Here is the input.
Amino acid sequence: MQTILKFVVTLALVIGFVPRFLPTVSAQDITITIEKGDEKTSSSTKKSPFSGKRPSVDVAILLDTSNSMDGLIDQAKSQLWNIVQDFAKAKKKGKTPLLRVSVFEYGNSGLPASEGYIRQVVQLTDDLDKVSEALFALRTNGGDEYCGAVIQEAIKRLDWSKEPNAYKAIFIAGNEPFTQGSVDYRKACKKAIGAGVVVNTIHCGDYQQGVDGKWKEGAELAEGEYLNIDQDEKVVHIKCPQDKIIIKLNRELNQTYLWYGSKDRRMSYAENQAVQDSNASGLGGLSVRAATKSSSVYRNVGRDLVDTYEEDKDAVLKIKADELPEALQKLAPAERLKHVESMAQRRAEIKAELAAVSKERQAYLDAERSKIANESDAVTLGDAISAAVKQQLKASGFQFEK
Here is the structure.
């Protein structure tokens, strides 16, 4: 064994790899296996700094939508914006990540058996309103839950970031054994980490039952976290004195959006933003959603003129007149730009107010939660994802705002 150790360390020094059994290995490092005789060991290499304007973060959420998972889906709906907030607070070299989210459902007998009872609900997208819309449309129905198959499909179908140091992760939640189906979960998990995608497994139920059902092994194979939750635990939303101000500012923020595209698309974007506000409000989470909308993680480049202008000032002048908001269609190019700049300034002011009030709200919330911290030790989907995300992003070089 000493001979093998010397061989691997020497190789590390020569080609720059850091073996897995040496300290400070990131969850997002690329792993390669070196074989010598009957022994195996692993080594990892650090990825180079991101070369784009913003670091890439791709997250696929794989949800079991069989009959017993109504509670899980409710938690996903209720805690989406809490989860997104974790990414909004993360920065790498001062840059907030470009977040894309995908959703798959599996284990639903209403889906085709020929496709393994799997459906890609949303491709990786930065349109977070679309993700919210998809979650609220999910319905449970009894079926067979094939974890290996849905992980394999997520790796195969999604256009995962090619950014050298992108954070790419799967979060799969369910309650049946991880071993079901014709696709070997071990091969699927190894293929995932081979593509640089960490697999985090969330077992809905008893910790040891999840271990016995191979959920823990699946996470370990793909360098992820194994977590267990109570999918039937109700998410508690605490009312805060800042909520009324935040809701008012959110309405004002919505008025700064200048949706563009065909008339139907413009209407669809505006309506969906309002519907997802309503959906969040119905579950007591509008303040968290509004706080997220005040961050750069909530972006609508290619849909909204202000966000598009912030990224590419010339793009606004290239849009056809009939695809602009009606109020801008008859304006000259210079007047059009002036209007967009004015709206951008107004949005920045509202976002600054929202961020300040949201910070006050968070401080109040933290104080209130500390009073009831010992009343329940149940972990929900949002808690589990948040814990894993913070740990893995830090390992990938991100820092979190306080």
The radius of gyration is 23 Å. Confidence is low (pLDDT under 50) at residues 1-51.
